[in-house]
Write a structure and sequence with these properties.
The complex is a heterodimer of chains A (about 130) and B (about 260). Chain A has helices at about 5-20, 20-30, 50-70, 90-95, 100-110, 115-120, 125; strands spanning about 75, 85. Chain A is mainly α. Classes of the chains: A mainly alpha (about 130), B alpha+beta (about 260). Chains A and B meet through helix 3, strand 2 and helix 4 of A and loops of B.
């Protein structure tokens, strides 16, 4: 290979640059600032277990959305037989009352901006 | 027969258990009821074909229908931008010569001419808005004929606004939320770039309630019911009195009838 020295150095610089955000977050300790979520204000158990909800709440919400809007199906029966109203404002936010201290914490940490709140209201915030 | 101590203790124990279990059962029942109250009604209003009948004679008395639009718009977080060009309307009052343009003539009754009639989405049997929607954000529900909208899916192309011959659809040119006087938590708002219209109060029907405008109208000026049920109030009215529809010549088969 011609100019192998320069090419390899170039590649190394390229790799360092492209992985810079990861290094940076590790170096500054930013990555360890895992957000602390507010505990639900009421309710004993979520519609699914915490691990599942942590990873797949967006899928659950999408399924609920399609069931309610497109199929007119409003009641969700959990695998253990409990029944829920498929509603973001009236079921999810009933227990996780604060959008700021629950939803937004992770979303900000992960830099995701879902547009749920463009339309769906948060009872707590409307009351203010 | 004498009761020995062993038997007495057995009975006493069982009786005590029974007494203790009863309040437990009551508590369990109450808990179940609490869960149920947060659920939508178990008996929603259903029909094979929802339709609306508006009595024009009763609309001549403005008092009968004046609260309809307000009730609807409050229930559904309809914004007021204060500018007719950006107006969002689900149900609104229209002059006879505008709503029934082709029925109008020079010598029509003065009373009719000056009266305001409620007009709204006609939930057509053959809805042109549905045909033109490129994302299927609007569709006709098979179970009851309501022309529904999925605001999650609407991309704001406004083909449906062009397609609708009744002007029943409005577009949010700006974020509507700051322009809603009082936000109703029971219903979502819309976002910028989304089309909206009347849904025949589909969310209220699911809770066993009649549409907000029907509830607000006095003296049965608006009647809501199932067209497929020959015994329903709407069928009875359509049998007994002559009715007209808006722009029937277009073949959209509107399902809002006006009694003459």
């Amino acid at each position: 290979m011609y100019d192998s020295g320069k090419v390899i150095i170039g590649l190394v610089i390229f790799l360092i640059l492209i992985t810079f955000p990861m290094w940076y977050n590790v170096a500054t300790g930013e990555a360890e600032n895992v957000p602390e979520l507010e505990k639900p204000v009421k309710g004993d158990a979520c519609v699914a277990d915490t691990e599942y909800m942590r990873s797949f709440h967006m899928d659950v919400l999408n399924q609920w959305r399609d069931a309610v809007v497109r199929d007119g199906q409003r009641i969700y029966t959990a695998p253990d037989g409990r029944k829920f109203n498929m509603s973001l404002t009236h079921t999810c936010l009933d227990c996780h009352a604060s959008r700021k201290n629950f939803c937004e914490k992770c979303h900000t940490y992960l830099k995701v901006t879902p547009y749920c709140w463009d339309c769906h209201t948060v009872p707590e915030e409307v009351a203010e | 027969m004498s009761v020995d101590r062993r038997k007495f203790l057995k009975f006493a124990g069982l009786a005590a258990l029974g007494a203790a279990a009863k309040p437990l059962a009551v508590v369990a029942q109450e808990a179940e009821q609490v869960v149920d109250s947060s659920l939508p009604q178990e008996n929603p209003l259903t029909a094979k074909r929802w339709a609306m009948v508006i009595d024009m004679q009763k609309c001549l008395d403005h008092e009968n229908v004046k609260d309809c639009a307000q009730a609807c718009h409050e229930a559904h977080n309809v914004p007021d931008f204060g500018n007719p060009k950006e107006e969002i309307k689900w149900i609104w009052m229209e002059d006879f010569h505008k709503a029934f343009h082709e029925q109008n003539h020079e010598y029509i009754d003065e009373k009719l001419h000056h009266a305001k009639f409620p007009v709204l989405c006609n939930h057509c049997d053959n809805p042109p808005c549905v045909k033109v929607c490129p994302t299927q954000a609007t569709w006709k529900r098979e179970q009851d004929g309501i022309v529904m909208m999925d605001w999650h899916r609407c991309i704001g192309c406004r083909y449906c606004i062009v397609g609708c011959p009744y002007g029943s659809r409005s577009f949010n040119w700006r974020d509507p939320r700051p322009h809603i006087k009082k936000i109703n938590n029971e219903f979502p708002t819309r976002s910028r770039g989304v089309v909206e219209k009347c849904t025949f109060c589909e969310e209220r029907l699911s809770q066993g309630k009649i549409p907000a405008c029907v509830e607000a109208a006095k003296d049965d000026a608006i009647v809501f019911g199932d067209l497929e049920d020959p015994e329903s109030k709407v069928r009875e009215l359509l049998r007994s009195r002559f009715s007209i529809r808006r722009k029937p010549q277009l073949g959209t088969q509107p399902e809002v009838y006006y009694l003459v």
